[in-house]
Amino acid sequence: MIRRTFVSAVAAATLAVFAAPAMAEDALRIGVEGAYPPFSSKESDGTLVGFDIEIAMALCTEMKRQCELVEQEWDGMIPALKARKFDAIVASMSITEERKRQIDFSEKYYQTPARLVAPKGADFEATPEGLAGKRIGVQRGATHQCYAEKMFPDAEIVLYGKQEEVFQDLVLGRIDLQLSDSLIAQNSFLTKDEGAEYAFLGGDQTDVDCYGEGVGIAVRQNEEELRDAISAAITAIRDNGTYATINDKYFEFDIFGARPASN
Amino acid sequence: MENILSYIPLDIALIAENFDRFMYGVWITLNLTFLALLLGGLLAIPIAIARASGHRILNPIVQTYTYVFRGTPLLVQTYLIYYGVGQFEVIRQSFLWDPILSSAWWCALIAFTLNTAAYTTELLRGAIADTPKGEVEAAIATGHSYRSRMRRIILPSAFRRAIPAYSNEVIFMLHGSVVASTITLQDILGVGRWLNGRYYLAYEGFITAALLYFLIVLCITWTFRWFERRYLRHLVRREVTSETNLPAPTTT
After folding, report:
1. Is A172 an interface residue toward B (CB < 8 Å)?
2. Which residue of B has its CA nearest to A76?
3. pLDDT at B245 over 80
4. What secondary structure letter does DSSP report for B151?
């Protein structure tokens, strides 16, 4: 009897596997990172959570499409999109000119400034001269790599695969300071125990060349239909309050920033 | 020329522009790989002798060491040394932290050395154990002690016989050294990933890195071929011509 149940369970599982591609045919596959809290991270049971994840789901509901989340390491994100591993990226990706040469973006869905983080009472200033010879940790392939190399040419830029590793090495003292999204630094480091001895250094770091016009959802080039559908869905969830509900779950203020200037 | 280049789907100009960075990457890769091989090799000699001797206490210790380091991936070992060891306040306060364990280069060197030493130990142990019995017996018959037997007969012969297998270890270590790029070092792959990250490229950095590794392996292979020709000549089967034939035994 037990055996029979087992056999039918196996049969059912096999069926499900074969049936899955047929059902998923129409599903929109979305690339997410899963290691960038609070935007996207993984629970201990493997489920993906975070602002990006919920926004992605809300957009799918708005567009009335089935969606499938695909996890992808950050520095392989754009190549994977181009290789059709998924159709859109919802992973806090800033819209920049250099990226636009490779891929296309929706309107922004949020915009937060980047800031430096250093130990409290650090004896250097956030100027190109002040940071000469200092070791600045940044995540590889991020806009921060572009900005750090441009603004602090005399500093040593240390590259990491994950943002979490940057914070880890900052605590271990292997780097003097780090550059990242201010919100990420605030939520997943400065307010935690290990970040107690650290603080922001200097003000907002802004630069259109590197940081672009905010964070958007990436799609392949020549897929205007999908891009415009996503942009429309962003406007829709801004208007119907879904965005605000998700936003308030994670942040104390509206991270959307100013409405994009229409020019 | 311009026209031909435009057909290649690679941004050659960008690679050329950053070639000095790649050269620096080559330097990091080479110094890490070969220093690790040198230190690991030196470490492996006494360990392999202990392992081959079947010593009651030393042998299990050595066996555990090689088992652990051959049984776990190099990436895991490097991560444990780089991120794991630093978690202990005691170590961060000790003399080991600055300048050794706080530096990514040193962490990589330690991990690579321990890793290659484990493989080289087993390789050498095999070669020592495989020493033709006749050579050992001849050494004993001519009054060599264990020490001088090891030094003058067994080790020189074992080293020579280990050359072909060791060339594999050298190439594996070179390829294994890409792990350095995961702990922030700008080795060849590190520079490749930097380039990809900086300009949002998919292939350029990796292809350049692949070509550089390929060239280094080519040099390693040539060097070992030369070594083998020089030191293993006595093992090569020779054509026997009539002139070199031994004279027929004369009867008296």
Report:
1. yes
2. B202
3. no
4. I
Which among A117, A88, A63, A57 is positioned nearest to A249, based on CA atoms? A57
Residue B178 dihedral angles phi and psi, to the nearest 5°: -60, -20
Residue of chain B whose alpha carbon sits nearest to that of A158: B184
- Which ipTM score applies to this complex? 0.71
Q: Which residues of B touch A (CB under 8 A)?
A: 83, 86, 92, 102-104, 182, 184, 186, 190, 193-194, 196-200, 202
Closest CA to B25 of B213, B222, B217: B213
Beta strands at A104-110 and A215-219: parallel, antiparallel or unpaired: antiparallel
Which of A137, A141, A168 minimises the CB distance to B197?
A141
Domains of chain B with CATH codes: 2-234 (1.10.3720.10)
Beta bridge partners of A218: A89, A105
Record the tokens describing residue B163, joined without a space: 């050359």
Q: Is residue A13 part of a domain?
A: no
Hey, what amino acid is at B232?
A: L
Instruction: Count the domains in chain A.
Output: 2
Q: Do both A95 and A30 map to the same domain?
A: yes
- Read off the pLDDT band of A11 (50, 70, 90): very low
Closest partner CB to B194 (pick from A137, A140, A172): A140
The residue of B81, B184, B187 whose CB has the most chain A CBs within 10 angstroms, and thus the best one to mutate to test that interface, is B184
Which three-class secondary structure state does DSSP give residue B251?
coil
- Mean pLDDT over A239-247 rounds to 94
What are φ and ψ of residue A257, in 5° steps? 75, -165
B200 Cα to chain A: minimum distance (Å): 6
> Which of A145, A172, A221 is best to mutate for the B interface (most B CBs within 10 A)?
A172
Write the single-letter amino acid at A181: D
The contacts of residue B213 (CB under 8 Å, 6+ apart) are: B174, B175, B188
- Name the residue with higher pLDDT: B2 or B216: B216
Instruction: Report yes or no on A238 lying in a domain.
Output: yes
- A165 touching B (Cβ < 8 Å): yes
Range of the domain at A25: 19-111+213-250
A178 at interface of B, judged by CB pairs closer than 8 A:
no
Domain with A173 in it: what CATH number?
Answer: 3.40.190.10
